[in-house]
């Protein structure tokens, strides 16, 4: 009996995804079963766990399993589990909407996805498990009852814009998903999902490691020799067959497991569709005994930088699933790592609070971190192309570790790579930079900013370009933070070229420059003094520059001061900072600077000179990609000046 029947609309993004599923010819339709079995397995894990923690929950957990049921006449396939089930609200939330964050991003990508390859990638990236049923079915019914509840829920959809939802009685606890298989596949034995042989093959291939039994009833005909020489007796018997071996892959050694098995297991634990880039099996014996099977994905999930992003390591204790997203096992900057850790000596009812204090968990985390980092390092040394793929996807996250994980800082620096003025094609490691350093060069120079182009055109770059000295170009937001807190690599100080004084001259050049500079400073003393007064609101010092060749002026920080971008980041995050003033450096060879000196010497009381000073300062701010305090005023002053010059 159904009551409370409702027709509802799919959320817009969910509808588009469904559409994608139905119309794109995904190269491998068989994977729908992997997704449904994976969900069923999760549901069984959750039930076992909940019954463990909630003693009042009246459920039978003695025979948790997954059934595949086929009706050849109706051409249906049902995947049934006696797991946790879903309440009516959960069905609406989990199945009717995309429970995942980042729907804006998804919407944008859906618009862009034109061809099959692009949509295949989308399916992969957003890992839309349940909806993959619509690759093979034109109607899907889900009947479910949550453990502990009396009534069940029936959900049904033809994959169009709506679904119906109803409350139903007499439903077994757990979830049954019934697929009405598409008629167009009926005659193609490749897609005959009612055939036991086909189902057996798919389960073996994609879901063999699932810990719960996946069962199917198989009809067999038995022929017994007849008595008395008459006709032999043919008898049909129904047998229950378990299709999967259920072996925990992490408990086996690497050579016993094929890459394909690892791959499918990765897709199950990571809820992903891509291939793992690296497979990392680990085993520790002795005081802290554990096994781990970790994966580095080949593709970053779209929500890697969103707050809701969950960590990807599951905790098992003695083969029993304990929790998803065990954050205690992996530092945040390795949150893209997926997999399983099975600890032998923890209690089965361990809680998050206990985990946070647990010495053993901390030891495991240290080991896992080291192992992941050494895997990346090996990748860098052994397979530069794969390393590049990795770094393009996850480098921005790994660099967070330069700030948070001081213990592994050296290793992290060694396995990082950066854009540099050396090449527009490929990035460089710090070790490679050091190897290319000029004789007498002691520092590793870098510049932070928003884009490569902005940095390359920055006035700070001029002297470095003129001397052919390499500069690292750091354009990720995280670079601002780590670069100012990491003092050195391999004994070589890291130095921002936008800070402090620059001195790129050789000893001989220095002597000549020194004499020259003393003279210049005398010549410019009046101008410098006057400018400091005129621009007092913005800057704390004016001096002659040795880093400029073509620009009239630039702004630099003290050696240990914050960069303006970092200052903006702190302010944006609500931190109160004292106002920071930086230093204006002038190019004594530039006509604007010499002209201003002459003008000031001749008519120091001319009020328009102060405006020119302000414009000079403003252009220096703009040239480094900075923001003006009062852009409208700057624009007005500039327009007036231009008008007068015509
Ligand atoms: P994912 O598994 O990556 O979360 P899916 O689209 O496969 O995404 O499933 C969406 C959600 O629906 C699951 O997270 C789960 O909460 C719920 N769900 C799906 N199938 C089942 C099931 N058999 N039993 C209980 N809940 C389920
Ligand atoms: Mg799923």
SSE blueprint and pairings:
Elements: E1 2-9, H1 12-23, H2 31-53, E2 66-71, E3 76-81, H3 88-95, H4 103-112, H5 116-126, E4 137-145, E5 152-157, E6 162-168, E7 174-181, H6 196-207, E8 214-224, E9 233-242, H7 259-270, E10 276-284, E11 290-297, E12 312-317, E13 320-323, E14 338-343, H8 352-357, H9 359-382, H10 384-398, H11 401-404, H12 409-415, E15 417-420, E16 423-429, H13 430-436, E17 444-448, H14 452-456, H15 462-467, E18 472-474, H16 477-483, E19 488-489, E20 492-496, H17 507-534, E21 539-544, E22 553-556, H18 564-572, E23 582-586, H19 591-602, H20 608-623, H21 631-645
Parallel strand pairs: 2-8, 12-14, 17-18, 17-20, 21-23
Antiparallel strand pairs: 1-6, 2-3, 3-7, 4-5, 4-7, 5-6, 8-9, 10-11, 11-14, 12-13, 15-16, 15-18, 19-20, 22-23
The site of magnesium ion has 5 residues, from helix 2.
Walk me through the structure.
By secondary structure, the chain is of the alpha+beta class. The chain folds into four domains: 2-217, Heat Shock Protein 90 (2-Layer Sandwich), CATH 3.30.565; 264-388, Ribosomal Protein S5, domain 2 (2-Layer Sandwich), CATH 3.30.230.80; 416-496, Rossmann fold, CATH 3.40.50.11260; 507-645, Four Helix Bundle (Hemerythrin (Met), subunit A). It is 39% helix and 22% strand. The chain has 21 helices and 23 strands. The longest helix is centred in the C-terminal third of the chain and has 28 residues, at 507-534. The model has no long low-confidence stretch (mean pLDDT 89). Bound molecules: adenosine-5'-diphosphate (ADP) and magnesium ion. Adenosine-5'-diphosphate (ADP) binds at residues 35, 39-40, 43, 81, 83-86, 94-95, 127-130, 175, 271. Residues 35, 38-39, 129, 271 line the site of magnesium ion.
């Amino acid at each position: 009996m159904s009551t409370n029947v409702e027709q509802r609309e799919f959320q817009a993004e969910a509808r588009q995804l469904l559409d994608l599923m139905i119309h794109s010819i995904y190269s491998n339709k068989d994977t729908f079963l992997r997704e449904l079995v994976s969900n069923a397995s999760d549901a069984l894990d959750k039930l076992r766990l909940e019954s463990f923690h909630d003693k009042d929950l009246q459920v039978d957990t003695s025979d948790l399993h997954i059934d595949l049921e086929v009706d050849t006449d109706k051409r249906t396939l049902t995947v049934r589990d006696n797991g946790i089930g879903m309440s009516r609200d959960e069905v609406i939330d989990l199945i009717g909407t995309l429970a995942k964050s980042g729907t804006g991003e998804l919407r944008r990508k859906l618009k862009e996805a034109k061809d099959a390859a692009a949509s295949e990638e989308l399916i992969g990236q957003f890992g839309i498990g349940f909806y993959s049923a619509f690759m093979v079915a034109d109607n899907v019914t889900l009947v479910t009852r949550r453990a502990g509840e009396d009534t069940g829920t029936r959900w049904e959809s033809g994959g169009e814009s709506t679904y119906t939802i109803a409350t139903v009685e007499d439903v077994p606890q757990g979830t049954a998903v019934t697929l009405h298989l598409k008629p167009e596949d009926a005659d193609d034995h490749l897609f005959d999902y009612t055939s036991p042989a086909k189902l057996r093959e798919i389960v073996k291939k994609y879901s063999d490691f699932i810990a719960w039994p996946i069962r199917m009833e198989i009809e067999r005909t038995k022929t017994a020799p007849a008595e008395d020489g008459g006709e032999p007796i043919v008898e049909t018997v129904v047998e229950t067959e378990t299709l999967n071996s259920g072996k925990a892959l992490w408990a086996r050694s690497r050579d016993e497991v094929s890459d394909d098995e690892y791959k499918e297991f990765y897709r199950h634990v990571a809820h992903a569709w891509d291939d793992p880039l690296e497979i990392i099996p680990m085993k520790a014996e002795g005081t802290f005994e554990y096994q781990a099977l970790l994966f580095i994905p080949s593709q970053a999930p779209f929500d890697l930088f969103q707050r809701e992003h969950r960590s990807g390591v599951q905790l098992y204790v003695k083969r029993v699933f304990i929790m998803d997203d065990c954050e205690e096992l992996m530092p945040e900057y390795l949150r893209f790592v997926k997999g399983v850790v099975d600890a032998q000596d923890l209690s089965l009812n361990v809680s998050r609070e206990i985990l946070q204090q647990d010495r053993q968990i901390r030891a495991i985390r240290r080991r896992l971190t080291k192992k992941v980092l050494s895997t990346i390092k090996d990748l860098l040394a052994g397979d530069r192309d794969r390393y590049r793929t990795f770094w393009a996807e996850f480098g921005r996250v790994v660099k967070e570790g330069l700030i948070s994980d001081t213990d592994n800082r050296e290793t992290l620096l060694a396995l990082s790579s950066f854009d540099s003025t050396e090449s527009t094609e490929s990035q460089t490691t710090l070790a490679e930079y050091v190897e290319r350093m000029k004789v007498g060069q002691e520092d590793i120079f870098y510049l932070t900013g928003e884009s490569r182009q902005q940095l390359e055109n920055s006035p700070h770059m001029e002297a470095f370009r003129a001397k052919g000295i390499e500069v690292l170009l750091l354009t990720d937001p995280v670079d601002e933070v780590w670069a100012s807190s990491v003092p050195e690599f391999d004994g070589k100080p890291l130095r921002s070229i936008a800070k402090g004084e620059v001195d790129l001259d050789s000893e001989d050049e220095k002597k000549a420059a020194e004499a020259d500079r003393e003279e210049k400073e005398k010549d410019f003393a009046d101008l410098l003094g006057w400018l400091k007064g005129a621009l007092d609101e913005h800057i704390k010092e004016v001096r002659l520059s040795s880093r400029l060749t073509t620009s009239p002026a630039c702004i630099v920080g003290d050696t240990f001061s914050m960069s303006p971008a970092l200052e903006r980041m702190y302010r944006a995050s609500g931190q109160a900072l004292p106002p920071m003033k930086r230093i204006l450096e002038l190019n004594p060879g530039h006509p604007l600077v010499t002209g201003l000196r002459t003008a000031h010497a001749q008519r120091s009381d001319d009020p328009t000179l102060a405006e020119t000073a302000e414009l000079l300062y403003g252009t220096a701010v703009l040239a480094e990609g900075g923001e003006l305090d009062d852009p409208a005023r700057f624009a007005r002053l500039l327009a007036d000046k231009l008008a007068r010059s015509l």
